[in-house]
Write a structure and sequence with these properties.
Blueprint (H helix, E strand, L loop, with lengths): L1 H4 L3 H13 L4 E6 L6 H12 L3 E7 L15 H9 L6 E5 L5 H7 L3 E4 L13 H11 L3 E4 L7 H8 L5 H13 L2 H9 L5 E6 L1 E14 L6 E14 H9 L4 E9 L4 H8 L4 E8 L6 E6 L5 E7 L7 H14 L5 E6 L7 H10 L3 E5 L19 E5 H8 L6 H11 L4 E5 L5 E5 L2 E5 L12 H14 L4 H15 L11 H12 L1
Parallel strand pairs: 1-2, 1-4, 2-3, 4-5, 6-9, 6-13, 7-11, 9-10, 13-14, 14-15, 15-16
Antiparallel strand pairs: 7-8, 11-12, 16-17, 17-18
Amino acid sequence: MIDDKLKTLDALGQIAAEARAAGRQVVHCHGTFDLMHAGHIRHLQQARKLGDILIVTLTADAYVRKGPGRPVFGEMLRAESVAALGCVDYVHVNHAVTAINLIDAIRPDLYVKGSDYVDANADLTGNIRDEVEAVRRAGGDVHFTDDITFSSTHLLNNHFDVFSPETKLFLEDFRRRCSLDEFLAYVKGLAGLRVLVVGDAIIDEYHYVSSLGQTGKGNTLAVRYQSEERFAGGAVAVANHVAGFCGTVGLLTALSRQDDSMDYVASKLRSNVELHAQTLATAQTLVKRRFVDQDLMRLFEVYYGGEEADRTALDASTIAWIDAHAADFDVVIVADFGNGFISNAIAAKLSERARYLAVNAQINSGNRGYHVITRYPTADFLCMNEPEARLAAHDRTAPLDRIAADLTARLDAAAMVVTRGGQGALLVEGGSTLAVPALSSRVVDRIGAGDAFLSLAGACMGAGYPGAIAALAGSIAAALDVQIVCNREPVDPVLFAKYATTLLK
């Protein structure tokens, strides 16, 4: 049955055109339909009564970004379930984020949505407005069915093993303390925050290659070049993450005027980020060129530039800027990658002048062994991964909560989060600890996940929110980021809200 009903988009466009020419009414419904339930069935049955042909389209798996483990059912199983209904004439799996391409091709007489979409303001994605506009542009109209509704998210969360037992317990406990609406209200409250991001700018390059195996003579790996891609990373990526949630964002970094990095970085910033670039007189902006295979495994990495030979002018201009402007911001988030921009003198000035200071001092290949968080005299919030925390404490065996407690005491910080990759994150605040499990079930690329965590958690802590709110917000941001190649795009606030809804509904 599914083979008879499953059609390409071109075929659907032709079917719809022929039906209209014959005076028949074409009705179109679109959704995910992850769990077919009575609400879906009644919705589709009502839609079919409104016309002569019912076309149902579904979002393909790769474009369902509602949270971990979604969709529960694959696109072909979902399509088969819809096609099994007698009221449905044709089915199509859509490989796009929205239904706009479908509406443009099908040009339905009637586009039918459920009653939960009547209030366009309640649609987290904002897509319903665009879809309505596309339908009317094509000469059609929109209808909302009115029957019993169920939450697929709620049903899946409560009756399917979507989450691990550890994650389920965490989310149940969190819901008892904070509802979905309260959590989203906290996040929306960040819009009034003024945030300064300080740190190294990095231009990440991915050179995509396919492996040819070992060379005929010797043990060198041979690869064939395929393509390349460039990303604005480091503190630039952090500023873009923050800018999706906070209204006013400044970026204090160092860039070279000897290459195209000044123009490139400026072109990659979100519109509400103001760039305050200090000039590198003798060095190019740091470029990290990574050679990446077909599975996104990094084979080799080359560093170019980033180290200023004479720091005198750079330190003087940066410190003067911090003295003059740091106090204008509610929160200063420092993404210190140890690549040469932030000296000990600049770190001390940030501790002195920031109204609220959130810091990460990252370990990487260019600074391993000598770059630690303790070069900051004081901070309010610390955020780092486990190796970074253990290096700063010079302790490889002590429990993480003890290490975090020692570091917060040393820097006079109120709280610290230790990120642990697939093991989640550990919040230590006021003598108590909270373990947040990893919230992503799909990992494309881990590059930048810690920066995404710092961005949201740092902003939330700077706003005075409870540590649990900040830890969950950071974890959601990281879960979204690991599904993005490098820093191809910042964390999207709409997808953030959808992810939170899946977790907390």
